[in-house]
Write a structure and sequence with these properties.
310 residues, alpha/beta, Serine Threonine Protein Phosphatase 5, Tetratricopeptide repeat, Rossmann fold, 2 domains, elongated
Length: 310
């Protein structure tokens, strides 16, 4: 599936690329890759074309050639909107990074903003906002003076938190997602921000929530440290992660990049990072976060707080 396809700037190259897509869709990725390589001879600076060539070569069973194509895409566009670095990591051609390229995350969600809610809720069975909402209310009944929604997206979690929060703020890297959230009118403030280097100087919050966000964060040490500094003494931190299977690399106390280019985290790692930042688990449930290609994606829904678990 093409996540993003910009024009090469050369009409003939674009036509060849279109034919290559048709060949790929018909089940002939080898021929598709050969035709797209010919298009790239006409437009050698087309980074999106090189990225797509890598995908076609991967489908054709040509991993070395695919890695070369992704490396070229990355050289041509170091900001890496398409996530070529992640493809290289998955192919074993680059060390696993602690976080995805910020430009990749921003581009991905800007691209899918229009169809995001329909796809996530109606087609993938996403119900994390409802689950976290119930958990938050069970751990701490009553109202919150301030709630912060990190990676707020279009506002699915914000709609759940709004009835119990006097003030609700949302933070997201995608301007297109923030426009969708703003149209709902549930937030008092919306801020475009990259969670990897988030700086917060506002009042302490009774709740910080990050629903289905850490799959695009990777290492959690930095963001959890930031969240701990945002929380009031009796504040809660509600979030979810995809979980690692016992057979996956990275062991039982870490995280790993999956072929989906999302990160999964072990329960042990989550607990270790929380504890290192003075937070303890108040509520935890294993659950199916969503479905992907009709397969359930297992994860954890967690509510943590500064107060020790009794």
């Amino acid at each position: 599936m093409k996540p993003f396809q910009a024009s090469s700037g050369d009409l003939t190259a674009d036509r060849r690329a279109d034919f290559a897509e048709m060949l790929g869709a018909s089940g002939d990725p080898t021929a598709a890759a050969e035709l797209l390589l010919g298009a790239l001879e006409l437009a050698p600076q087309w980074s999106a074309g090189w990225f797509r060539l890598g995908e076609m070569q991967e489908a054709a069973g040509q991993p070395d050639q695919a890695a070369q194509a992704w490396a070229m895409a990355l050289r041509l566009e170091p900001a890496d909107r398409l996530g070529a670095a992640l493809k290289l990591q998955l192919a074993g051609k680059a060390p696993t990074a602690a976080a995805p390229p910020s430009a990749f995350v921003e581009t991905l969600f800007d691209h899918y903003a229009e169809s995001f809610e329909d796809m996530l809720v109606n087609k993938l069975g996403y119900r994390m906002p409802e689950l976290l909402d119930q958990a938050i209310r069970s751990v701490r009944p009553g109202r919150l003076s301030l709630a912060l929604d990190l990676g707020c997206g279009t506002g699915l979690m914000g709609e759940r938190v709004r009835p119990i929060a006097d003030r609700l703020e949302g933070y997201d890297i995608s301007a297109a997602m923030l426009r969708k959230a703003r149209a709902k009118g549930v937030y008092d403030r919306l801020v475009k921000a990259d969670l990897q280097d988030l700086v917060y100087a506002g009042p302490k919050a009774g709740l910080v929530v990050a629903a289905d966000v850490f799959i695009y964060v990777g290492a959690l040490e930095g963001i959890v440290r930031t969240v701990a500094g945002m929380l009031a003494e009796d504040g809660l931190f509600a979030f979810s992660v995809e979980t690692l299977a016992d057979t996956e690399p990275a062991g039982g106390d870490s995280f790993a990049l999956r072929p989906s280019r999302r990160y999964a985290h072990s329960e042990a790692y989550v607990r270790i990072v929380l504890a290192a930042n003075g937070l303890s688990v108040r509520w935890l449930q294993r659950t199916v976060i969503r479905h992907d290609r009709r397969e359930p994606i297992d994860g954890l829904a967690v509510v943590a707080g500064k107060s020790p678990t009794l």
